[in-house]
Automatic annotation (TrEMBL):
Organism of this sequence: Hondaea fermentalgiana
Gene Ontology terms: cellular component: plasma membrane
Compositionally biased tracts (Low complexity): 392-414
GO BP terms: cellular response to pH
Protein's recorded name: pH-response regulator protein palC
Region of interest: Disordered: 377-463
UniProt cross-references to InterPro entries, sorted A to Z: BRO1_dom (IPR004328), BRO1_sf (IPR038499), pH-resp_palC (IPR037505)
Domain BRO1 per the UniProt entry, residue ranges: 99-463
PROSITE patterns registered for this protein in UniProt: BRO1 (PS51180)
Listed SMART domains: BRO1 (SM01041)
Amino acid sequence: MASDEDLDAVAELLMKFTEFGTPTTKPLSFEAIIGGNLSHEAQELLQVATQQRETLLDGITNMGGRVDPRNVVAAVENYLPSVYKITHSMEQSATAQIRLNKPLEFSWTSVLVKKNKQRKEYKCQVLVYEVCFILTVQAMAHYNVARMLLDPERPNRAANLVAAAKELRKGAGILEYVSQVMLPRWVNPPENRPPEVMPAVVAVLAEYFVCMAQRLTVQQAILKGTPASTVGKLLLGLSERSHNLVGSVRRLGPVVDTLFEPIVEEPALVSTMSHALAMKFLGDAAKDKGKPGEAVAFLSLAVDQLNGIIFSPTMDKLLRPEVEAARVEILDKYHVYREDNEKIYFEGVPTRDRLNVPAGSFIATAVDFEMPEVDAVAFGTPPGEQHHEADAQNAPAAPANGSKRASGGFSSWFGMGGSKKKEGASSKSGRLEAPPGYDKEVFDGLPPDVQQEVIADYEASRK
């Protein structure tokens, strides 16, 4: 098993995480807000949801101490079925007479905006806001668990690479579900909503997580002794995917100027950095194949690309030390390769346009996420009891289309419309030996445990 002694400057660069904070929220009592002659089962559900939300609040505040992201994941997983059951039940009880004693208002701060704006509260009176927000909170907690597993102060962290990559892929799967399934069903979302519930931003964050998972997969492959040519292809795949992510970020429009800086700035740096590292490994592969002149050319290109990186203030603090250490390490190897070639091999060094750069390969994938299965409970009046009309003064405004569904306007405080997309479905097909979209040579060159991860993902996608 690889130990931390095997981690060089390249490893430290690949394993360097930014840190996402944890949003905060205000306490809320479902049973104190949703009134009327509710069924006994509905009353019990509201009470349980309130208690579970309080547990989540405890997890994300930790009494002012350092938040353990594992507790946040567990708290969301505990609360999600209940709040989703309320949401689903409201959807099924569209004609029930339900009284709101005061607006059902959820308040959250955002950690996807710039740090000087992270105390601002975003309030919304629809259930889908709460459901989507806590899912994004859970996804970011998975990211922070991965970061914790690979913390430089943690002993034997190299052994945690597989687990950390899995946490990132879980987070990405949740974010993909939120952006592709949940948020598109939100009827008339407010313009002033936090990035955590903006479909395009959530989709970008999912891709950010997947790219980080690819970085860890590359490092795992290196430690397992994967051929340098295969590592180079994995890094080229990361470079291309990160470059595409830069385009996705730019297409977000004006909201980009409000976002947490690493989301906006890191993909471009990672694209350049991973391409440079790919050149380093392709140089190693050329040297192994008895092509010392080509090896010198590849390493020269790697050094020049790392030298050309321009650091923003945020990236200067986050990644400059690791990039510089990797640059020095690669530069030292370049000098060794060049001296060997000049004194021993006497092989010509090809120009860069003559170098054979292979296509990249990207194997990290999001883990499919499914909402918990819940049965609706009746929010109507128990048999033999009289209906109570909603308090029109406290109920949210009716929808603009004049719908009378539920007191106060059903869709205005539930927030969803349209049919659900089929959950957990996938169009993937093909042979298990080489899943579609994967470079066969790269797949064959991966360590057995990484191959098993790829095959397991493929099999899961077929269910």
